[in-house]
């Protein structure tokens, strides 16, 4: 089965994100900045929509973020 255009776009952004994370020592961008740039790009190309943000369980996200800060 062929990938749709949106699936190809998402895959491209995902691969770019991984490559940027792998090469952080070369370009010096923080991993959080790379993640924010990728999320912004997904919004700009309309793969990610505002309704998708309503589906996030923010309690769990804050729990994991707090746990990561304690480590």
Radius of gyration: 15 Å
What fraction of the residues are assigned to beta strands by DSSP? Answer: under 5%
> Main β-sheet: number of strands, strand sense, barrel status?
none
- The number of helical segments is 5
Regarding quaternary structure, what we see is single chain
Helix-residue proportion: over 70%
Helix and strand pattern: HHHHH
List how many beta strands DSSP finds. Answer: 0
What is the distance, rounded to the nearest whole angstrom, between the alpha carbons of the first and last residues?
Answer: 43 Å
- Poorly predicted ranges: none
Structural notes for this entry:
- 76% of the residues lie in helices and 0% in strands.
- It has 71 residues and is an all-alpha fold.
- Helix 1 packs antiparallel against helix 3 (31-44).
- The longest helix has 18 residues, at 5-22.
- It is flat, with a radius of gyration of 15 Å.
List the helices and strands and how they pair.
Blueprint: H1 5-22, H2 24-27, H3 31-44, H4 50-54, H5 58-70
Task: Please tag this protein with its features.
71 residues; mainly alpha; 0% strand; flat
Short account of what is shown:
The protein has 71 residues and is an all-alpha fold. The protein has helices spanning 5-22, 24-27, 31-44, 50-54, 58-70. The model has no long low-confidence stretch (mean pLDDT 94).
């Amino acid at each position: 089965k062929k990938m749709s255009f949106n699936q190809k776009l998402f895959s491209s952004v995902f691969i770019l994100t991984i490559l940027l994370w792998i090469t952080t020592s070369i370009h010096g961008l923080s991993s959080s900045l790379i993640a924010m740039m990728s999320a912004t790009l997904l919004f700009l190309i309309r793969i990610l929509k505002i309704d998708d943000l309503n589906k996030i369980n923010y309690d769990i996200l804050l729990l994991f973020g707090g746990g990561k800060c304690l480590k």
